[in-house]
């Protein structure tokens, strides 16, 4: 229910106050009210304060449609993501929530676009630009040979990616989390605790973020003089695959005393496999995941946390740096690499 506006014409009214009514109540012209809203530096301080007081008293809010016509902006941002597989994506859920919250405080709304492939996502972007005149695009889940990035660059659309380009040609704005730093910190922690055989459960080769996290494990093992041969297992990102790959490394003649995982999904599978074998994660075999999901905190799984609210804010900053121009250019590219945090719990 709308609040009743103050009596602007001598009679209480139940409708949205207009600029004309604000002007009449403040004894100024409609142009002056418009200037107070859009260019307050043009208005004398005494007049500005009087108009602002009337605006506050009436609860006036400018019509978005009128603003869009004036600024040629829809204040709408499209966020594209491809539907996850069998396991939910806690990272995507938290990121989208943070992005929506921050965007709203800046006056933007989010249009979510789901697709099953790069081609389908490109088609969704095309429709969003034509049908909704979106101001910018946030792309998630970057990968090698990413057709979406190349298409967006050719269209000269303002966009930013959550994820590095992983070999895509040319430059653009991106925000990412240093996955190698996260797994390196996890592996170094385990090495300091005395573990000399640390396994890594990763994703199939060719995954940009997966390969990045793998490098962190390799670097830490190399610096500590620890072996890696026979201690790497790759699989899809499901809990069941985590069980299988964990079983494979534990069944070796010389099993590891610690395991670092590329994701919490694999780590939860490893945790379940250990419990089925009568092993206690953290006491018998140390275990560290990646993403710091809600499940990790519930079961006591150590994990690497991504600063997702900071990622969302950096994505919005990168987009706002492009808006107002005729398109992206190298002078406005923002490339931000944020640091994750190792969260230690009972398992590691």
From TrEMBL:
<dbReference type="GO" id="GO:0003677">
    <property type="term" value="F:DNA binding"/>
</dbReference>
<feature type="domain" description="HTH lacI-type">
    <location>
        <begin position="17"/>
        <end position="71"/>
    </location>
</feature>
<dbReference type="Pfam" id="PF13377">
    <property type="entry name" value="Peripla_BP_3"/>
</dbReference>
<keyword id="KW-0805">Transcription regulation</keyword>
<dbReference type="InterPro" id="IPR010982">
    <property type="entry name" value="Lambda_DNA-bd_dom_sf"/>
</dbReference>
<dbReference type="InterPro" id="IPR046335">
    <property type="entry name" value="LacI/GalR-like_sensor"/>
</dbReference>
<protein>
    <submittedName>
        <fullName>LacI family DNA-binding transcriptional regulator</fullName>
    </submittedName>
</protein>
<keyword id="KW-0238">DNA-binding</keyword>
<dbReference type="InterPro" id="IPR028082">
    <property type="entry name" value="Peripla_BP_I"/>
</dbReference>
<dbReference type="Pfam" id="PF00356">
    <property type="entry name" value="LacI"/>
</dbReference>
<dbReference type="InterPro" id="IPR000843">
    <property type="entry name" value="HTH_LacI"/>
</dbReference>
<keyword id="KW-0804">Transcription</keyword>
């Amino acid at each position: 229910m709308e609040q009743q506006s103050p009596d602007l014409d001598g009679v209480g009214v139940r409708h949205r106050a207009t600029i004309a009514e604000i002007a009449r109540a403040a004894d100024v012209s409609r142009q002056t009210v418009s200037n107070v809203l859009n260019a307050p530096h043009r208005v004398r301080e005494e007049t500005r304060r009087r108009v602002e007081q009337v605006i506050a008293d009436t609860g006036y809010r400018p019509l978005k449609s009128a603003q869009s016509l004036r600024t040629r902006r829809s204040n709408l941002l499209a966020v594209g993501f491809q539907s996850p597989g069998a396991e939910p994506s806690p990272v995507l859920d938290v990121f989208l929530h943070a992005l929506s919250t921050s965007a709203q405080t800046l006056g933007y709304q989010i249009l979510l676009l789901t697709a099953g492939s790069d081609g389908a996502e490109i088609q969704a972007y095309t429709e969003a630009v034509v049908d909704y005149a979106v101001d910018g695009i946030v792309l998630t889940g970057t990968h090698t040979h990413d057709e979406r990035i190349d298409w967006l660059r050719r269209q000269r659309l303002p966009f930013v990616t959550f994820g590095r380009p992983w070999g895509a040609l040319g430059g653009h704005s991106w925000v990412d989390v240093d996955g190698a730093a996260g797994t390196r910190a996890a592996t170094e922690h385990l090495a300091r605790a005395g573990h000399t055989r640390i396994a890594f459960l990763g994703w199939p080769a060719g995954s940009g973020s997966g390969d990045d996290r793998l490098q962190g494990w390799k670097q830490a093992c190399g610096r500590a003089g620890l072996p890696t041969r026979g201690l790497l297992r790759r699989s899809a990102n499901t809990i069941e695959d985590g069980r299988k790959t964990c079983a494979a490394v534990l069944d070796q003649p010389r099993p590891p005393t610690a395991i670092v995982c590329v994701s919490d999904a694999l780590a939860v599978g490893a945790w379940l496999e250990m419990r089925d074998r009568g092993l206690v994660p953290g006491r018998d075999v140390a275990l560290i995941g990646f993403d710091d999901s809600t499940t990790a905190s519930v079961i006591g799984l150590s994990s690497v946390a991504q600063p997702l609210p900071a990622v969302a804010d950096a994505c919005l900053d990168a987009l706002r740096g492009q808006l107002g121009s005729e398109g992206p250019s190298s002078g406005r590219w923002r490339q931000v690499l944020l640091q994750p945090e190792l969260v230690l719990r009972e398992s590691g």
